[in-house]
Amino acid sequence: MGMLESGLRRAKRRLQDGWMSRKLDPIARQVQERRLTYLPTAKLLSLTNQIDRLNRDGVAGDFYEFGIALGGSSIIMASKMDANRTEERRYHGFDVFGTIPPPSAQDENDSHDRYAVIAAGKSQGIGGDDYYGYVDDLYGRVVRSFEDFGLSVDGDRISLHKGLFEDTLSLPPDARIALAHIDCDWYEPVKFCLERIADHMAEQGVIVVDDFNDYQGCRKATCAFLENDPRFLLEAERPHALLIRRAETGR
Q1: Which residue blocks in the chain are alpha helix, DSSP H?
Q2: Residue 182: which of 221, 125, 152 has the closest Cα?
Q3: Which of 37, 89, 140, 142 lies 20 to 30 A from 155 at CA?
Q4: What's residue 124's pLDDT?
Q5: In whole angstroms, what is the distance from residue 140 CA to residue 35 CA?
Q6: Is 222 helix (H, G, I), strand (E, B) or coil?
Q7: 10 Å Cβ neighbour count for 174?
Q8: pTM of this prediction?
Q9: What is the rounded distance in angstroms from the CA atom of residue 66 to the CA atom of residue 94?
């Protein structure tokens, strides 16, 4: 009975995923078909909806992403960042472009168990592909994927920053961020990213925390951040967390 119920749940998820896939825009569908993203359809749809909202409402600022993997969500963000806008945005992506660093003592067993699989070389890729963390010259592969979509990683409109976040993230005082996609799994990098970008988020800008429901350390870091910074509202918890920068009051 248990196996039957499990099979029915998987079948239901596949049907739901297929239905949601039809709602994705063409770029997101192409990214998904080329197996360039680990994000499930629900997360892709939520991410693209947020980009459309920011463009529609004229929320100023650049797009930042922490944790790129194969570059699928990066390509979506960069492709859609200027839709229906006269002011140009810029995209900044940050990643070690290799095997991710290990979790810390602040993370729970789920993170350490997952990292043990990665470190042992046993992690699975998408649809039978190699796991991205084992790919030689991952940076070059991501750049070529951008080019396949007509996007140039020119260091101006589109920039990829290779290395640890604490070594590569440098924000000028006037930096303004409309969208930040944080997809870095563990407690410490999530905490670092949230705290470093908070002052630079535009009003009504959004921070998307990908692993809020997947790893306890990520959730713990996000909840602590929200408790300490009342400027942000947790608008949604699923399929990932959406943190909206509240509008200033008293004007």
Answers
A1: 2-21, 26-33, 41-57, 72-80, 109-119, 138-148, 165-168, 187-197, 216-228
A2: 221
A3: 37
A4: 93
A5: 17
A6: helix
A7: 6
A8: 0.92
A9: 5
The domain spans of the chain are 2-245
pLDDT at residue 174 above 50? yes
Residue among 177, 195, 235 at smallest CA distance from 59: 177
Per-residue tokens: 208: 């998307």
Closest CA to 114 of 101, 106, 123, 126: 123
Q: Which CATH class is domain 2-245?
A: alpha beta
Residue with tokens 């979509």, as numbered in its chain = 149
CA distance 251 to 147: 45
Residues in the chain, overall count: 251
Question: What DSSP assignment string belongs to 114-162?
Answer: HHHHHHTT----GGGPPPGGG-TTHHHHHHHHHHHTT----SSSEEEEE
Q: Name the nearest CA neighbour of 178 among 28, 78, 51.
A: 51
Mean pLDDT to the nearest integer, 18-30 = 84
